[in-house]
Write a structure and sequence with these properties.
By secondary structure, this protein is an alpha/beta fold. The protein folds into two domains: 16-245, NADH-ubiquinone oxidoreductase 51kDa subunit (Rossmann fold, 3-Layer(aba) Sandwich); 343-498, Up-down Bundle (de novo design (two linked rop proteins)). The chain has helices at residues 16-21, 26-31, 36-46, 58-68, 90-97, 100-113, 127-143, 165-172, 192-196, 228-240, 242-245, 279-287, 319-324, 343-357, 363-380, 386-398, 407-421, 423-430, 477-481; strands spanning 75-80, 115-123, 150-156, 223-227, 256-263, 269-274, 296-300, 308-309, 333-338, 445-449, 452-456, 496-498. A five-stranded mixed sheet has the order 6-5-9-7-8, sandwiched between helices. Strands 3-2-1-4 form a four-stranded parallel sheet, sandwiched between helices. A hairpin with a 5-residue loop joins β5 (256-263) and β6. α6 packs across α10. It is globular.
């Protein structure tokens, strides 16, 4: 597989001076010399799509932001670095190697949409990344590189939904990571003075917010929110042009993507690949392929898309090709399952992860999700009868009803893919012929050390109310935390565990 180094640098860039010595910053210089709409048009022509999972066209997002910004209050650019998709470690790899080109991309975005501040939304547990970004910001401010744009790092919780863009904005605003209906271009984050002064009287809910609209006739501050990898692509696109970006990749999926490969492979790792590279080649190049004597049964692209069976491993890693087989690129994290892995146990593990991480604002998502999780756990232990299986199928069909974010749709997509693509494994457990197995551990990837993935072992003990108490309180996160302030939340240290073959 041809190696590329557009956003994931080979060596660590230790200072802004070193970055600029390697021609870093030229995109920002070029951006400041043209009309902001030229930047929007360049991004549209490049075909860059968001690398956070949804794959939304970046240029279109920027244009929508410009059309809805307020004339009264400043716009904010938010860098979404709240990476928590199981099996994904690409944003943290980028920030560890070089936070400067991500910051440069954010500064270009600020110029394009008229923003006066940039907020990096990271997790408090990302100590290495937080330190690197803070140091880069300090250099940018000391040298004047950031101009008049205010820079800030926000350290948030480990909850999965913190990475959902509206939930991220909610948390920055002093509330908890619960998704809201208002999109970022209609409602962003409050001013720094308001946020640091505490929550406004009576504003404890996302429902009680003012929204911006075309023409900027309100005082609601909109926000542009882009993923770390997305913004890392921006400087060179502006420096070299849209046509340069399209020299690799496919027509609908130009450029590169940073992929993470973990699971049942000879090694685990992160690397940048050209869009359109066959998935099999990505797995072999980054992960070394299947372990000796084993063969790949399926690949799970995070917990947002359906499982990919072995006979589709030659599918190109592109948005259009992955969508065509009923799956998706997601955030480029591919968890490989070999012939020793029970896929009913995988479905149970995914279901538990999503059921626990659901916030509870949507009843079918939380209550139905937890019911699916319990039934799949019983099924993996070969303890579910036909009636229970039918109940599980019914809940899968209804879990996404009236959902305000995508989590419930993810739950439906992953479980449905196992039901449809691996019916023989489901049948074996339903008939009691398959051996009992515990749910597969699905949790956030904490690090990759020496070619071995490290996951958050504490998730085994996490309750559906987002506590780690011995007994589940019965309360949903939205009920337990809905009227509180995020700043009052007590953080607990993680327990890191290396993944073994049996746990992976």
């Amino acid at each position: 597989m041809r190696k590329v180094r557009r956003v994931l640098f080979a060596s660590t860039i230790g200072s802004l001076e070193e970055y600029q010595a390697k021609r870093g910053g030229e995109g920002l210089v070029a951006a400041r010399q043209v009309d902001p709409m030229v930047l929007v048009e360049t991004l549209e022509a490049s075909g860059l799509r968001g690398r956070g999972g949804a794959g939304f066209p970046t240029g279109r997002k920027w244009r929508t932001m410009v059309e809805n910004r307020s004339d009264r209050v400043g716009t904010t650019v938010v860098v979404n670095g709240a990476e928590g998709e199981p099996g994904t470690f690409k944003d943290r790899s980028i920030l560890r190697k070089n936070p400067y080109h991500v910051l440069e991309g954010a500064l270009i975005a600020a110029h394009a949409v008229g923003a006066d501040r940039i907020i990096f939304g990271l997790k408090r547990s990302f100590t290495i990344e937080v330190a690197r970004v803070r140091a880069a910001m300090a250099e940018a401010e000391a040298t004047g590189w950031s101009g008049d744009v205010a820079l800030e790092v926000f350290e948030g919780p480990d909850e999965y939904l913190y990475g959902e863009e509206t939930a991220l904005l909610e948390t920055i605003d002093g509330r908890f990571p619960f998704p809201r209906v208002a999109p970022p271009f209609r409602r962003g984050v409050r001013s720094a003075a308001e946020r640091h002064g505490g929550a406004r009287p009576g504003v404890t809910s996302a429902a009680n917010v003012q929204m911006a609209g075309p023409g900027g006739e309100t005082d609601a501050p909109p926000a542009l929110i882009d993923n770390v990898e997305t913004l890392a692509n921006v400087p060179r696109i502006i420096q070299r042009g849209a046509a340069w970006f399209r020299t690799v990749g496919t027509e609908e999926s130009p450029g590169t993507i940073v992929c993470t490969v973990t699971g049942s492979t000879r090694k685990h790792g992160v690397a940048e690949v050209i869009m359109g590279t066959p998935l099999r080649e990505v797995i072999e190049s980054i992960g070394g392929g299947a372990k000796e004597g084993r063969h790949i049964k399926a690949v799970m692209p995070g917990v947002a898309n359906g499982l990919i069976p072995a006979d589709l491993l030659d599918t190109p890693v592109s948005y259009e090709a992955m969508n065509a087989i009923g799956s998706g690129v997601g955030s480029g994290g591919f968890i490989v399952m070999d012939d020793t892995i029970d896929l009913v146990a995988v479905a149970a593990g995914v279901s538990r992860f999503l059921g626990v991480e659901s916030c509870g604002q949507c009843t079918p998502c939380k209550q139905g999700g937890l019911k699916i999780s319990g039934l799949l756990a019983d099924l993996s232990r070969s303890e579910a009868d036909e009636r229970a299986f039918a109940s599980m199928q019914a809940n899968v069909a209804e879990v996404s009803d009236s959902a305000r974010c995508y989590l419930a749709h993810q739950h439906e997509a992953v479980v449905q893919s196992v039901l449809e693509r691996f019916p023989e494994e489901m049948a074996a457990h339903r008939s009691g012929q398959a051996p009992a197995v515990p749910p597969y551990l699905v949790a956030e990837l904490i690090d990759i050390n020496g070619g071995l993935a490290v996951v958050d072992g504490r998730f085994r003990d996490k309750q559906p109310d987002w506590t780690f108490d011995e007994v589940f309180s019965g309360k949903l996160p939205a009920d337990r935390l809905g009227e509180g302030r995020y700043g009052d939340w007590t953080f607990k240290p993680r327990e890191w565990v290396s993944v073994t073959d049996s746990e992976d």
